[in-house]
Amino acid sequence: MNRQTKTDILRAGIAAPSADNSQPWRFAWNGDELDLRIDASRSGHVSDTRYVLSDLAAGACLENMIIHAWSLGYVADLETFPSDDDELWVARVRWHRDPGCDQSEPLAGAIGQRHTDRGFPWRGPISTDTQARLDAQARHVRGQRLYWPQTPRERKAALKLIRQAETLRFRSPTLHAELFSSIRFAVGWHAACEEGLAPATLAVEPPIRPLFKLLRRPVVMTMFNWLGAASVLGWRSAWLPIRLSPGLCLLVIPSTARSDVLAGGRALQRVWLEATLAGLSVQPYAAAGVLGLGFVPVEPAFQRLLSDLGAALSELCAPGCGLVFLRIGHAQSAADGRSGRRTLASFGDFP
Ligand SMILES: Cc1cc2nc3c(=O)[nH]c(=O)nc-3n(C[C@H](O)[C@H](O)[C@H](O)COP(=O)(O)O)c2cc1C
């Protein structure tokens, strides 16, 4: 494998999504073998307890690399979590040329186009044919599936769960600190940034921006919470856009074993790339699923809500663990702000 091919594979990897644009990946080449590790300095905090979010991002990164390499004629032999002694070591990939590899992989063309779109309203409908193609991409990864709330009762239950979880991100001081620390207010409301969330990507309406920025201060958030701010923000960031979007589905993984979460990230990425090919916009909502797992150390006052979230989610999508909701629809316009990425050199020491 030449140097350019290796670089191209890594570039495809870092185009993957990650919670709060944390990009928690480390790469190391050893000949044609590639090790993917989770970056200790960008993982393991609050919502990423037990590396659930990092494993999802690692799975998405891995899938992007596998898809791109295939389009170049390389097949991946994958060994996941190669060492019990190294919890950050997610995968070792051995690449080899395969004469049988026909190099046609339509998903490869969507890697550079895929992005998170938090705007709304989005038009519909999502045809049953498209839905079936998204389902097939999730099932392409063993054990993974999508659940689509169908009946009004199911949709209402899903909406309630997501709204409660998003509201908690503003009510819980721990989650509030985590959320706002990932927003790079210093770059202003129009520029991109190479790590973390640029305000431009958040689809906050211009008149609300000064207040939203003020809410990063814990004391201001607490004060506004007496007036019900967290509920309003949960309604605005989750309930309203989802109500106005035609598609909502949930990635369901078989268990919370790390290998299943990693596989969930791979499935998530395949679904997202397929949606991109179909001209659809996607916004993930991970809080309900991740908080519902019960691992995240929030204040004792909110622990009950976490177990209620977990129970309601299992009731909705059993068997399996519902992990990430995806809001899907046809965007009326292109997203104006895209998330940036760090330089490739910052992801490892490459020869
Ligand atoms: C595991 C995971 C969880 C995410 N959770 C959310 C979420 O709850 N809300 C949201 O708006 N975006 C969420 N995102 C999207 C990321 O913020 C986004 O991928 C990142 O900022 C990079 O931007 P891009 O997808 O446009 O490349 C999530 C992404 C991943 C991979």
UniProtKB/TrEMBL annotation:
<dbReference type="InterPro" id="IPR000415">
    <property type="entry name" value="Nitroreductase-like"/>
</dbReference>
<protein>
    <recommendedName>
        <fullName>Nitroreductase family protein</fullName>
    </recommendedName>
</protein>
